[in-house]
Amino acid sequence: MALDVIDRPDSHRKLHAQDTPLGGGIVLLLASVVAVLGLMIFSPNWRANLLENAWFLSGLLAGVVTICIIGTIDDRFGLRGRQKLIGQIVATAFLLLAGLRIDSFVVFGFNVELGLLAVPFTVFWMLGAVNALNLIDGVDGLATSVGTVLCLAIAGMSYPEHPVEMMLALVIAGSLVGFLVFNSPPASIFLGDGGSMLIGLVVGALAIRSSLKGPAVVALTAPTAVMAIPIFDVGMAILRRKMTGRSIYSTDRGHLHHSLLRRGFSGRKTVVTISVLCLVTASAAVVSVHQDNESLAATTTLAVMGILIASRFFGHQEFLLVCRRAKNFVVSLIPGGQRRNANGQQLQTRLQGDQEWNALWETLTSFAERFDLNSIQLNVNIPAFHEEYHATWNRKGSPDSTELWRSDIPLVAHHVTVGRLRVTGACHTNSVCTWMGDLIAGLKPFESQMAELVGQICDDDFSGNNGSSELKQVGPREEDGAARLVRSQPK
Q1: Residues 399, 299: one domain?
Q2: Which domain holds residue 410?
Q3: Phi and psi at residue 311, in whole multiples of 5°?
Q4: Which residues pair with 390 in a beta bridge?
Q5: Per-residue pLDDT for the chain (491 aa), expressed as one digit of tens each?
Q6: Does residue 363 sit in the same domain as residue 450?
Q7: SS3 for 408?
Q8: Rounded to an integer, what distance in angstroms lies between the CA atom of residue 68 and that of residue 57?
């Protein structure tokens, strides 16, 4: 509280009930360090083992302290995505200096030598682990529970060949279990970025160390299976955002925990469900290590992901996006295929909600054709009202890039931030000022229609609560930008 590292509701992204401290990372760091020091003081055997790995432990300590500081600064002041990424790379660099590097990996008996790609590959793995745990932290106790499952799995993989890694994994798991008492719904303290990124860094490093089959040779299947669900979640987030024309640092409500909440799962049930999914893939990884059967881990992981996609619980929309994009690409290669889409290619995706954004989009595409625009992109994201819709339209035969102008327009209606509209067009030979004036005037019908639709959403939402804006908490803040509360249903 003295440092003012507190998560405050903002009525848009952070809709939890009250101010809540974000000191989870500091608590985990101190608890783990004290536990390791205790082992060194009171157990001669463990002291000898730890001293043999002093160089790695020094790098790990420097990395977790760095990542905890970066996360705490982000919790206090807010950092841009690129700034956080730089901090994560610095933390990973300490581990690289301490000898953590994947020079080669083995998959199903095939040995892949990385050579000059060893350092980039290791950094990529570590950044993936850090951000996977960071982005999955969307409900009270979720990242803590998932981190506990992953650490226990790593301990199981490490036994008996990697005793230090096993001990460190158990120490982190014990610290997480103790923290879970205060982080379970409703949480009295949040992990914050400092806590979730710390868990990711430790899990990523120990997963590599516990899978070593020789000097810097990693059996990659098992650690990938251990982290399969968080990696799947962050992978779908990157895919979803890139294929809808947004930055990977943008925010949305498309994560696995959001999908479960939309299906009526409570906060606790969401935590249990995701933890069980992680337990299934992690258990398969542990068994595969001890039975030397990589296919078990791979098959189990693919089966879990396939079930999530096929049942439409998670990943289905992203799968359709890939299929549609692939279809458009194939059509563009077929002679005459472009003529079939002479008016332009368009792609619409509804990630959540049920409002008539399609009608609004038709107004935009008519506007684009009338003013001979090159492309338009509509991104609707209203987390407080559970609406997310994305659509793009591109004209065939784009002019040279030097002839194009671009405009990025924020959309606000009824004091609600709706999203953004991106427009690209070509300069005309006649009066540019006159043409731009007509262009802006042409957007007025769209603006009026958008305001009417947003007003209807607000009215429907509040009337559905009998005129009350009562909120029911299902988790703390949304560190990836989505609301953490759902409006309570009328009784």
Answers
A1: no
A2: 344-487
A3: -80, -5
A4: 349, 379
A5: 455 556 555 544 554 455 667 778 899 999 999 999 999 999 999 999 999 999 999 999 999 999 999 998 988 888 888 899 999 999 999 999 999 999 999 998 899 999 999 999 999 999 999 999 999 988 889 999 999 999 999 999 999 999 999 999 999 999 999 999 988 888 788 888 999 999 999 999 999 999 988 777 899 999 999 999 999 999 999 988 888 777 787 777 889 998 998 888 998 999 999 999 999 999 999 999 999 999 999 999 999 999 999 999 999 988 988 888 888 778 767 765 554 444 567 778 887 777 888 888 888 888 888 887 888 889 888 877 778 888 888 876 665 666 678 888 888 887 777 888 888 887 666 666 676 777 778 788 888 888 888 888 776 654 544 433 333 333 333 333 333 333 333 33
A6: yes
A7: strand
A8: 16
SS3 assignment, position 113: strand
Q: Is the separation of the CB atoms in 481 and 251 below 8 Å?
A: yes
Give the DSSP H or E segment for 347.
strand 345-352
Cα 481 from Cα 70, distance rounded (Å): 18
**Residue 302 vs residues 50, 171, 229, 414: alpha-carbon distances, Å:** 37, 30, 10, 45
C-alpha gyration radius of the chain: 25
Please give the order of strands across the beta sheet that includes 387-394.
Answer: 345-352, 387-394, 375-382, 416-426, 404-413
| Alpha helices (H) in 431-474, listed in sequence order | 432-442, 444-464
Cα dist. 436→139, 394, 439, 440 in Å?
Answer: 46, 20, 5, 6
- For residue 471, the SS3 value is strand
The total number of structural domains in the chain stands at 2
Question: Cα(228)–Cα(136) distance, rounded to whole angstroms?
Answer: 12
DSSP string, 34-100: HHHHHHHHH-HHHHHHHHHTHHHHHHHHHHHHHHHHHHHHHHHH---HHHHHHHHHHHHHHHHHTT-
Q: Are residue 162 and residue 231 in the same domain, yes or no? A: yes
- Token representation of residue 309: 């996609």
Which of the 8 DSSP states describes residue 478? -
The domain boundary, picked from 287, 311, 335, lies at 311
Q: 325 in a domain, yes or no?
A: no
The predicted model scores a pTM of 0.82
